[in-house]
Amino acid sequence: MDNVLPCNVEDRLQELLLDDEETNIGNDELPVTFKDVQPGGKYVQKCCAFAQKVAIIIPYGDRKEQLDTVVRHLHRLLQSQHLCYGIYVSELAYPTVFNKGLLMNVAYLTARDEGHYDCYIFHDVDLISQKERHLYICGEKPNHMSSFNTKFGGLPYIKYIGGVLALNDTHVRVVNGFSNLLFGWGGEDDVMEMRIADKHLGLTRVSADIGRYKALPHDRDKGNPVNNDRYKMYRTLRKHTDQDGLTSLAGLYELLKVERRPLYTWIYIKCNKTEVLQKNKNIVFG
Ligand code: BGN
């Protein structure tokens, strides 16, 4: 942290607002390079001394091109905001069924244990922020950042908090992270919304002109079939927030590798859907 700037990020935001009313950005337009990024995708150069330290958590399937695009974009964006940060990408070994909640929980724990971050931003791999002045920090309440997604022309429904969500460490602990038990597509974000509401944390949402994201197009992922049990599970999981999440993660997966790639930390894990659901059958069917 030799080069930390004696500024705070709110000042930087003011600068951005004054500098440039039109801060729409494309993928490659922000003027920073990757030379100061440390292995594992960490950046502690030229960032503000008193700003939050931010971990970006990206659960990943098999969309390498999107991952490369979003990671590069995030480095540019976060450096332009003078933030200290680390980018964490978690992936499940095939053959498996995708489990976004479990992947996000494992990446959160990895980031927390090595970085003690102030803010955790859970970020879909296909979303590109279109506004330079969309500040990547946490507020007092959980904050839904992707309030306008080009795929939906806004929000798909009012309670939607998927896409990009910022939680501080207290928020993540109070809701016990994400459910580990939703395999396949759908529902992990809705369960998180329910947890935030049930724990009375409140919620803020960035205004739609700032929280504007371009969705990169993609086919359906392999290993991510729609979870047909998701509505039923949404109801049963509600009673088990404290038993299903970070507190029950140990023993549900095997950590295969943590690799410091040039632009991100890659966390590779293995888990068996049948075993995970069997171990938690009281929750899933109770
Ligand atoms: C919803 C999904 C979300 C998904 C959004 C946007 C469900 C309900 C499960 C109880 N929710 O329909 O998970 O992020 O669409 O694609 O399926």
Note down, in words, how this protein is organized:
This protein is 28% helix and 19% strand. It has helices at 9-19, 64-80, 100-115, 169-174, 188-198, 230-237, 273-279, 281-284; strands at residues 42-43, 53-60, 84-92, 119-123, 127-129, 143-144, 148-149, 164-168, 204-205, 212-215, 254-260, 265-270. It has one domain (39-284): Spore Coat Polysaccharide Biosynthesis Protein SpsA, Chain A. It is α/β, with parallel strands linked by helices. The model is unreliable at 17-23 (pLDDT under 50). The chain is built from 8 helices and 12 strands. The protein binds 2-(butanoylamino)-2-deoxy-beta-D-glucopyranose. The site of 2-(butanoylamino)-2-deoxy-beta-D-glucopyranose has 9 residues, from helix 5 and helix 6.
